[in-house]
Amino acid sequence: MAKPATPTTKPSEPAQVEAYLQALQHPLAEVLAALRQVILKTDPTIGEEIKWNAPTFFYVGEMPPTDPKEFRRILIVSNVYKQDSIRLVFWGGDRATDPTGLLSGDYPDGRRLASFTSLADVKAKQKALQSVVRQMLATLEK
């Protein structure tokens, strides 16, 4: 008889992200570091790792097993490709209501984007960013 599926958790990898940030050669590296702190301080159930060659933030708590290709645990993937901004890709951002206009894009897979160009921009958008992250966490099956 098959064993019933049990909820799974995922460990955070802060040392991995710290090493990445220390080695990052980008004009807005301090913006990414500030975004990291805002995201992690939003909720203690947010973990971090390097995935897709950039800091990625995810839910660390228990979740029922799902298809790994759904990436349901992932909340935000950072993107440092552009030199004039740090983009955050909200994996499942369509699950959040954003009256502030922080999120842009309307991708069929549910992704939404937000761009940050300076530390002042991070500070100005901090409450909206944290609101979106909290909403995304609230929609996860626990």
State the separation between the terminal residues, measured CA to CA. 25 Å
SS class: alpha+beta
What average pLDDT do the residues reach?
Answer: 89
Mind describing the biggest β-sheet?
5 strands, antiparallel
State the low-pLDDT regions, or none. none
Amount of beta strand: 15-25%
3D shape: globular
- Separate helix tally: 3
Order of helices and strands: HHEEEEEH
What is the helix fraction of residues, given as a range? 25-40%
Question: What spatial order of strands do you see in the largest sheet?
Answer: 1-2-3-4-5
Gyration radius, in Å: 15 Å
Q: What's the total number of strands?
A: 5
List keywords for this structure.
31% helix, 142 residues, five-stranded antiparallel sheet
Describe this structure in words.
- Strand 1 (46-51) and strand 2 form a beta hairpin.
- The radius of gyration is 15 Å and the shape is globular.
- The chain is 31% helix and 20% strand.
- It has three helices and five strands.
- It starts with 13 loop residues before the first helix and ends with a helix.
- Strands 1-2-3-4-5 form a five-stranded antiparallel beta sheet, with helices on one face.
- With 142 residues, it is an alpha+beta fold.
- The longest helix has 20 residues, at 119-138.
List the helices and strands and how they pair.
Layout lengths: L13 H10 L5 H14 L3 E6 L2 E6 L14 E6 L6 E5 L21 E5 L2 H20 L4
In short:
The chain is α+β, with helices and mostly antiparallel strands and 142 residues long. It is 31% helix and 20% strand.
